[in-house]
Amino acid sequence: MIRWFHFIVLSLLTFVLLSSLLVDREPLEQSKSYFLERGTRETGAVNLVTALYLAYRAYDTLGETIVLIGAVTGVLVLVGKHK
Amino acid sequence: MKKTNILDVVSRKLSPFILLFGVYLVTFGHISPGGGFQGGVALASGLLLILLAQGPMVLASSFPIGRISVLEVLGYGLFLLAGLAGFLLGLGFLSPLLPPPGTIFILNIVIGAKVGAGITLICWHLFQEGEEQE
Description:
Number of strands of chain A: 0
Number of helices of chain B: 5
Low-confidence stretches of chain A: none
Oligomer: heterodimer
Structural class of chain B: mainly alpha
Helix content of chain A: over 70%
């Protein structure tokens, strides 16, 4: 009984996750052409990857640095020398 | 670990060039492929080559572990400060304040220093833990 319940939940989850593939691609194409046309002009970075992660999505990069500082803190707590 | 002449010479000659390449990746991150994260890892690998081949004492003489920890926290603080500066000036959080490549250049250097310090710290402590177990 409970196995059937798991099966149903998993198939529903799979459907929900795969349904993102069916979404109309129009917004993605718009943002791609926007970055290709104006990315270098607006941010001054020839490397569009850098233009994305430090200008358009700098807030995301701030979160990534928090992840790294969390990893360092974890290592120091677990294996660092306690004086 | 037995220290051979090959290991000694190669690590001493190679690590400055790895560090130089890391600095190049960080400072040219907005022009050529690269950037703060990749350049920071290259910087850390240069330091870790010294650590593995020459021992922790040689690395600590030029890069003390206390200062590397301070650099790690300082990098995060500077990034946050760059964001808050735009916020306080009424332009929005992390909005560019300098003329176009300026903000990206500075943030790349900050991230490069921070990532290099972080990876070096992680590997340093893990290696020390491994040597104590032996």
